């Protein structure tokens, strides 16, 4: 592995013009199974959101397509009027069909409509951060609108005052370069100690001093990765025993050490699990830990 990890970690980092705590909250899991439909216990979902903010979370990741039309409503009902300093990041570019499948919906007109939907559901006049979700990796055979046209549409909305900042999600190196040139303040891609395929993109973010926000921060469970694989890894477990931490906590701490502007948005529908995630900020990995974790074998699901 060629990562440039550090043995010191800061508690906060820049997300564009905002300074936020490096451990935020991803609200996707507050929807029903497979991020489709409402949760079985909406009051619990709202309690988790309130507990997150009360515990210092000041960066929440969401999207109108979570549900769809579910998670944003829960956030509004639980937290509006929003506390000062809370950054809400949403994403556009996708849609759901009647069975819950994720579909590309990135025409410039679609993006503008989705931004308006997010504004209404979150009940804000301006969205703090809008990530453009690309599908080039999920559906490589499906033609997407030109990235330049999509970014131009979002920048037009930024000029109108409906968006504060833009970011890019699920894009390759060339797409990330294009987005940075258009003013993107962050990248949201899959990345973890088990999936380091985007190391070059993390380094590009470092070069430009912008945020990197990993989804699947514990590795994707599809094909056998994820928390179960972490829990079975001897190197992760050795570091976990040293710090009295779970395998998942070690994996999240590794991400914080990987890049000083790496922001985490682990998701959960459990207050206890949320507290476990937030406790990662108290773990400091030393050079010996990082060298041991260098031995973790990256996981690539079978084709």
What can be said about this structure in brief?
The protein has 303 residues and is α/β, with parallel strands linked by helices. It has helices at residues 42-54, 71-79, 108-122, 147-159, 173-181, 199-208, 227-231, 234-243, 247-258, 271-278, 287-293; strands at 12-15, 18-21, 25-26, 59-61, 87-92, 94-96, 102-104, 127-133, 163-169, 186-188, 211-212.
Report on this model:
With 303 residues, this protein is an alpha/beta fold. The protein has one domain: NADP-dependent oxidoreductase domain (TIM Barrel), CATH 3.20.20. Helices cover 37% and strands 15% of the residues. It contains eleven helices and eleven strands. It has a seven-stranded parallel beta sheet, with helices on one face. Strands 1-2 form a two-stranded antiparallel ribbon. A two-stranded antiparallel ribbon has the order 6-7. Helix 1 packs across helix 2 and helix 8 packs across helix 9 (247-258). The longest helix has 15 residues, at 108-122. Residues 1-6 have low confidence and may be disordered.
């Amino acid at each position: 592995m060629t990562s440039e990890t550090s043995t010191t970690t800061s508690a906060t980092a820049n997300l564009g013009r905002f300074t936020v705590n490096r451990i935020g909250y991803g609200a996707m899991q507050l929807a029903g199974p497979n991020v489709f439909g409402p949760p079985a216990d909406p009051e619990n979902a709202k309690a988790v959101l309130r507990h997150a903010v009360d515990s210092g979370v000041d960066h929440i990741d969401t999207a109108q397509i979570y549900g769809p039309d579910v998670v944003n409503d829960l956030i509004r009902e639980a937290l509006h009027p929003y506390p000062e300093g809370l950054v809400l990041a949403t994403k556009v570019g996708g849609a759901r069909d009647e069975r819950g499948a994720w579909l590309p919906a990135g025409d410039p007109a679609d993006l503008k409509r989705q931004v308006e939907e997010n504004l209404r559901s979150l009940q804000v006049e301006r969205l703090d951060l809008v990530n453009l979700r690309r599908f080039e990796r999920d559906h490589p055979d499906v033609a997407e609108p030109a990235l330049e046209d999509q970014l131009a549409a979002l920048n037009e909305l930024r000029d109108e005052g409906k968006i504060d900042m833009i970011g890019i999600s699920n894009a390759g190196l060339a797409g990330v370069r294009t987005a940075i040139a258009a003013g993107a303040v962050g990248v949201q891609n899959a990345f973890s100690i088990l999936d380091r395929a985007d190391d070059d993109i993390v380094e590009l973010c470092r070069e430009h001093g912008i945020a990197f926000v990993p989804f699947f921060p514990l590795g994707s469970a599809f094909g056998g990765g994820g928390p179960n694989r972490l829990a079975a890894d001897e190197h992760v477990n050795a570091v976990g025993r040293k710090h009295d931490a779970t395998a998942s906590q070690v994996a999240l701490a590794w991400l914080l050490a990987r890049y000083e502007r790496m922001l985490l948005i682990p998701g959960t529908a459990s207050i206890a699990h949320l507290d476990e995630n937030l406790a990662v900020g108290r773990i400091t990995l030393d050079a010996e830990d990082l060298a041991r974790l260098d031995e973790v074998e990256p996981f690539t699901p079978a084709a």
